[in-house]
From TrEMBL:
Organism expressing this protein natively: Streptomyces lavendofoliae
Annotated protein name in UniProt: Polyamine aminopropyltransferase
Lineage summary: Bacteria, Bacillati, Actinomycetota, Actinomycetes, Kitasatosporales
Organism domain of life: Bacteria
GO molecular function, one term: spermidine synthase activity
Keywords: Cell membrane, Membrane, Polyamine biosynthesis, Spermidine biosynthesis, Transferase, Transmembrane, Transmembrane helix
InterPro entries for the chain: MFS_trans_sf, PABS, PABS_CS, SAM-dependent_MTases_sf, Spermi_synthase
Oligomer and partners: Homodimer or homotetramer.
Reactions the enzyme catalyzes: S-adenosyl 3-(methylsulfanyl)propylamine + putrescine = S-methyl-5'-thioadenosine + spermidine + H(+)
Gene giving rise to this polypeptide: speE2
Chief site of localization: membrane
Amino acid sequence: MIEAPHVSVAVPPAQGGPAPLPVRQRAGRFLVLATVFLCAACGLVYELELVALASYLIGDSVKQASVVLSVMVFAMGVGSLLAKRLRCRAAVGFGLLEAALALVGGCSALVLHATFAWIGESRYALVGFSMAIGVLIGAEMPLLMTLIQRISRRAEQDAGGTVADLFAADYVGALVGGLAFPFLLLPWLGQLTSALLTGAVNAVAGGALVLWLFGRDLSTRARWLLVVANVAVLAVLATATVLADDFERSVRRAVYGERVRVAVRTDVQEVVLTGGPDRPPELFLDGRLRVSGRDEHRYHRALVHPVMRGPHARVLVLGGGDGLAVREVLRHGDVESVTVFELDAGVVRLARHDPALARLNGYAYGDPRVRVVYGDAFARLREAAEAGAAYDVVVSDLPDPGITASTKLYSAEFYGLAARVLADRGRLAVHAGPMESRPRTYWTVDATLRSAGFLTRPYRATGRLSGFAAGPDRSTDEGSVPSDWGFLLAARGRVPPDPVGAGGARAVPAPGPADLPPSTLVHPRYGE
């Protein structure tokens, strides 16, 4: 966690002198440093929570993370300056500051989800919380410095050693908070409860330190003010925790409609499946619509059937854990084996066992020719290339390249690995996003494939009925539903077969620009 670097160490003596501590100076110093540790851990959890929410609710994790972090660091500097006014009342100021931080940070996830669900826009709320939390975190350190200097002065310890101890506790706490959020809090408690619990820890740590260790410095009115403030904050956080499940269900209904049948968080993402007896299923991954039963057949037929023109005994599907691309592959009876590289085992379990989704994919995972390999597609493709695997067909059924997490799966290096696993006369089919609404992204995929040594044939499928009904990419930049899906058929050393006519594939209306640079791991181009 980055703290404001300019902190004054010299502290004017309190008028009348500070009251004696209830513990020895060494124990008091330890308690202050322990509080620094806990506050730093909580502060970084708030920070990571905002970054995660920004990526989930708005999209484009790189840009949103940059906004959150830059605003927070700036706000921390502002908070550090504002804390000068509180140093003469450092104890009560710190206690109230931590209560405010616990309330704002603890409720941030609830408010951001609410603005997204019922207003449809979370950007302004995100910036507001980043600013508010940053100001409060930035004000912590000067006040803590003032409090620990009172103890260190009695113990006749040098200012340099005090500063070193304070920042060491702060950075170690940030490390613990940074590791606890992705590995403990988020998978075990989820976004809402983890933020609320962090707020409770924050309030208890700050209030207990001030009321017990420095309580004798406070007036009766100040003590009661701190007690009432912390009890009120803890009551709000506790109430919100009890109601978190009901709130989450309300948010899902507001975003996805009333027909949510399955809502689970796997080790990778949130998976939501909607539908009913009179409505085809829809699959959302982290808020993004990935499958609509109304029109998915047009997408998957156009993706798979053109690339199956030619040898296709051994097929590799990249992504496609929903089993729908596999369904189309298995329509070709002479397929001998289908290997699926899928990141999320939870999606495959749902596609295998959910009655509606399994019926939609034709019970593809019950076919003995299908084998699933779990893990990141890039890593698994590299392993397959090093092992000398050879496939007649590779089907890239991956999320849109405009999504930051998918960018490396549309890079020249990724396609270089795909080329290594293709057998002689092998072909590669790539989903490259909507061509008409995002032409630059589409043609960048084409340029990237050509830079990896492929010859390409662009094509598309029309008749799209479903847009992005929820999530950060629920509409295009123009605010309208995409009208098509864009694909590329690629082969090395020879021009791939004409895809038009197979599976409803249509010709593109015009050739794309010839001077677009390829996207690489070092320089991803899809966000430009």
